Hints:
With 208 residues, the chain is mainly alpha-helical. Helices cover 78% and strands 0% of the residues.
Amino acid sequence: MKKVLLAFGLLIAVAANAQSDKYVAVMQKNLALLDSAKTSQDFQSAANAFERIGDAEKTQWLPYYYSGLALSTIGWMDKNLDKDANSTRINALCDKAEAIEKNAEIYALRNMSATQQMLVDPQSRWQTYGQQAAAFLKEGMTMDPNNPRLYYLQAQNIFGTPEAFGGGKKNAKPLFEKSVALFKTFQVKPLYPNWGQKSAEDMLAKCQ
């Protein structure tokens, strides 16, 4: 009986490892496609692919995150995009990811989604989406106070805010500096987000 149980256990372990290897391989393939994406259609295709991976795996939050990140990138690059509809989809992907694991990276994505909706009409939308964006950053920093992407996003928001309202280069510079410093020591795990360092460095240079 013990031999039967041992053999059964080994079969389960082999099957689980094969599934894990398949997941890693398909994620690496699609991350390469995401890194090389240039057009809105490229990013849309990547978003769709990652969402399919998430729906198939069911226990992995990263595919949903990357699907939302691809859509967020479209939001920054496509001036004619319906930002509200795009953010609704991003938020739904964040919900799926957070149902699996709640973490700071998802809140960084939520911040970008809310920021894009706010920028449709900053004057009228600040009280809603602007406040949401700030709250998401605060929550993310509570979860992971050493995440460099959170400080980069906060610095970006301040950089784009008029000086009369506490924004501008001078006020954004310390946060860009903190982001860059944290990037230098941030330990990136396989398949996990690693974007933002060059952008933070480029923005810091603009604050000099």
